[in-house]
Amino acid sequence: MTEQNVLVVTVDDETNLYKEGLEAIQTLKEGEHLNRPATVRFPNESQLTDVFNERAYTFLRVIMDEEPDSIRETARLVGRDKKNVHKELTTLEELCVIGFESVGRAKKPVFPYDDLVVSPLAHDPGDGATAAP
Fold first, then answer.
1. I want to staple 10 with a disulfide (CB 3.0 to 4.6 A). Which of 39, 62, 109, 119 is the partner?
2. CB 109 within 8 A of CB 68
3. C-beta of residue 62 within 8 angstroms of C-beta of residue 77
4. Once rounded to an integer, what is the mean pLDDT over residues 45-64?
């Protein structure tokens, strides 16, 4: 079974990113594989929903399903102005949610993951809470 390349988007204001980074570096130095998904963390639900709104999901669906060759084509597919689409896609790129590939003079948006998991609820990592089946 092949591993899936998953992006996890979550709210996590309690995470010590510096400590996590040091642990990851140590793991890599020991020659071990990091078995963690790519993660984008927001400090609160409001900031997460500002970025991962209905428009963002529409962009991601179009990028994954239609594979547009440019920002202009993406704008056409979603029926929105190119300037506004460029701004929102650039935000997603800055968060490493999407990337851009050069196709001539155009920038092709790509979603480099197999799946996206969004967990919008903040929780205390030590609370032991688990999802019900």
1. 119
2. yes
3. yes
4. 94
Does this model's pTM top 0.90?
Answer: no
pLDDT above 60: residue 51: yes
Reading the block at residue 46, the tokens are 């409001």
Rounded Cα distance between 33 and 30, Å, is: 9
Alpha carbon of 78 to those of 52, 94, 98: distances in Å? 16, 21, 17
Residue 62: how many CB atoms within 10 A of its CB? 20
Q: Tell me what percent of the residues of the chain surpass a pLDDT of 70.
A: 75
Q: How far apart are CA 72 and CA 99, in angstroms?
A: 15
Q: Which amino acid is at 25?
A: I
Q: Do the strands 38-42 and 99-103 form a parallel or antiparallel pair, or are they unpaired?
A: unpaired
* DSSP character string of 36-80: --EEEEESSHHHHHHHSSHHHHHHHHHHHHH--SSHHHHHHHHT-
Whole-number pLDDT of residue 112: 94
Above pLDDT 90, what percent of the chain? 51
Ordered structural domains, the chain, with CATH: 6-119 (1.10.10.10)
